[in-house]
Amino acid sequence: MSKSAHSILIFIAVSLLSACQQEKVVPIPPEVIVKEVNKDTVPIYGSYIGVTQASLDVEVRARITGYVEKVEFVEGSWVEAGQLLYLIDDKPYIAKRKQVLAQLEKDKAAYDKAKRDVTRLKPLYEQDAASQLDYDTALSTQEQARASVMSSQANLDEVDLELSYTKIKAPISGMIGGSQADIGALVGSGGISLLTTVQQIDPIYVTFNMSSLDYLNARRRMNTLLEKRKAEEQGKTLGGFVRITLPDDSEYKYRGDVSFTDPKVNPKTGTFKVRAVLPNPDSELLPGQYTSARIRLSEFNDAVVIDEEAVRVEQGGLYVLVVMPDNTVEYRFVMVKHYGEQGLVIDSGLNEGERIIIEGQHRARHGQLVKPLSEAEFKEMQTKQNAKNVEGE
Question: In angstroms, rounded to a whole number, what is the distance separating the alpha carbons of residues 37 and 28?
């Protein structure tokens, strides 16, 4: 190679290297999903461990002595008020009724005879054809016969009542428990007395302990005097204030009313017993369940609220990534005042209207330029991209 050609090649290589060094690669801003900081009213709830109880728990007992002939219900099922549960052998009571009825008929016959005797003696006595003693004896016999009829009638009523007790029926509608007496068992005073129980679970009670301060805050939160008066007229201290969490951590769809509060506070714990009543038409709540009862105590008004996923943690505390008006990222430490259902209530560090990153924080750094997208814009972009991918296939 000639010297001049070699020089030309060196010149070209140096020129190309210089051009590459002068070109600056402009990075593509990463896409992040942002959300605007808003103000809202955030409720404050008190949470308490509660236990469900039947609103009525009625014992079914045998009121007469006898042997069980039939058990007419399925244990653990729903029964209606007046439904036949047990049938006790009624033959002894039918025989007793016949005996008492015969005595009643006998007493009625004696009473009729006594009345006829008085009717016959009265004109004779008025004409001095019968003595005073005979007439008084006839009147006395008539009254004794009448009393005997009344006594026999009372005995018959008692036997009829006992006979009705051979059919044991459900006192209320509700869920029936297990049977304590099988067919052939002796029940009553000479045997098993408690046969089963029936529990009314619609409505259902939830009892829990509440601090006096929380109760006072909840009472103050009732917005108007009319609301207070309406609740008190219905016997509800706090109407529609109680929320229940089910065992699967879902919220129960019906709200409850505080219907009873213990009139005294436990000086050792500063709490008192509270009972709430809730509708339970689908039997989702059963007696004896532990559950979480929540009552709205107060609220934060005009509170700065952000989503929990926007917050990051480091040694210095909690921070969020704020997208500035020029789309650069700024680390911002925040103070959280309350963790609520709607998000985190921020005490300081953010202002209404600012944009914070809620997804894609790992792609952003302090001072970095980003491409902010709203959740709606991001979904629209994904939809278009998916459509292109389908067309490409």
Answer: 26
pLDDT of residue 342: 79
Question: Where in the sequence is the domain holding 175, given as residue range(s)?
Answer: 64-87+167-192
- Three-state DSSP class for residue 322: strand
3-state secondary structure of 393: coil
Report percent pLDDT > 90 for the chain.
49
CB of 38 closer than 8 Å to CB of 305: yes
Claim: this prediction has a pTM higher than 0.70: no
Q: Are 71 and 86 in contact (CB under 8 A)?
A: yes
Among 255, 283, 300, the domain-final residue is: 300
62 is written with which tokens? 């045998």
Distance (Å, rounded) from C-alpha 12 to C-alpha 15? 5
* pLDDT tens track for 227-266: 555 655 554 445 457 889 888 888 899 988 887 777 788 8
In 3D space, the residue among 272, 269, 220, 262 whose CA is nearest the CA of residue 241 turns out to be: 220
Number of Cβ within 10 Å of residue 195's Cβ equals 20
| Number of domains into which the chain is organized | 4
